[in-house]
Design a protein that fits this description.
The complex is a heterodimer of chains A (about 110) and B (about 120). Chain A has about 110 residues and is mainly beta. Chain A is about 0% helix and about 50% strand. In chain A, the strands form two sheets. In chain A, strands 2, 4, 5, 6, 9, 10 and 11 form a seven-stranded mixed sheet that branches. Chain A is globular and about 35 Å long. In chain B, a hairpin with a 6-residue loop joins strand 5 and strand 6. Classes of the chains: A mainly beta (about 110), B mainly beta (about 120). Chains A and B meet through strand 4, strand 5 and strand 10 of A and strand 5 and strand 10 of B.
Chain lengths: ~110, ~120
């Protein structure tokens, strides 16, 4: 199984900050990576697929990059509604696997 | 508008069974693969199972293989998850999720809570 490791597990940031979350796969997954956002007691929301493609309706301050084993999610200017937990997921092969999550909190 | 509405969750004793349903609307259900993803209380997301658009291909996490069965009825636009031999560690909110492209999720249901407890 492919293990997905996210870092950091949590971070504190201020509105307007640039935030970067990393995700590392235990083996190469090409660009078969997605990012999701989840707020407390809510269903996840899809942000990015194929490592860098933005889902429809997602603000352009979100971006993704990387290929192979190392990936990043960047929020260029953190907004109040962005405080949430973020997950990466690989879909290179079954079983599909998620990272452990990164909680973005208000500083 | 894509809508995914899960139902069928509840309280069940260890060793019991439950069938979850997910009613889909707003897209051509039969051409898209679907997933079940769960989240235990206070924990992260865990992929459970996937099924192709035709239903001909199914995939399972090792933690549920042999106990859970995913299926779909394309005439009813409904996804199912039959869960047998339930364990306490299966307690979670179960989300159905529509897949775009290879296997990335683009839409999620709100989820249904399954509690396995005596």
């Amino acid at each position: 199984d492919i293990q997905m490791t996210q870092s950091p597990s949590s971070l504190s940031a201020s509105v307007g900050d640039r935030v970067t979350i990393t995700c590392r796969a235990s083996q190469g997954i090409s660009s078969w990576l997605a990012w999701y956002q989840q707020k407390p007691e809510k269903a996840p929301k899809s942000l990015i697929y194929d490592a860098s493609s933005l889902q429809s309706g997602v603000p352009s301050r979100f971006s993704g990059s990387g290929s192979g084993t190392d990936f990043t999610l960047t929020i260029s200017s953190l907004q109040p509604e962005d405080f949430a937990t973020y997950y990466c997921q690989q879909y290179n092969s079954y079983p599909l696997t998620f990272g452990g999550g990164t909680k973005v909190e208000i500083k | 508008e894509v809508q995914l509405v899960e139902s069928g969750g509840g309280l069940v004793q260890p060793g019991g069974s439950l069938r979850l349903s997910c009613a889909a609307s707003g897209f051509t259900f039969s051409i898209y693969a679907m997933n079940w993803v769960r989240q235990a209380p206070g924990k992260g997301l865990e992929w459970v199972s996937a099924i192709s658009g035709s239903g001909g291909n199914t995939y399972y996490a090792d933690s549920v293989k042999g106990r859970f069965t995913i299926s779909r009825d394309n005439s009813k636009n409904t996804l199912y998850l039959q869960m047998n031999s339930l364990r306490a560690e299966d307690t979670a909110v179960y989300h159905c999720a529509k897949v775009r492209g290879p296997a990335a999720v683009d839409y999620w249901g709100q989820g249904t809570l399954v509690t396995v407890s005596a």
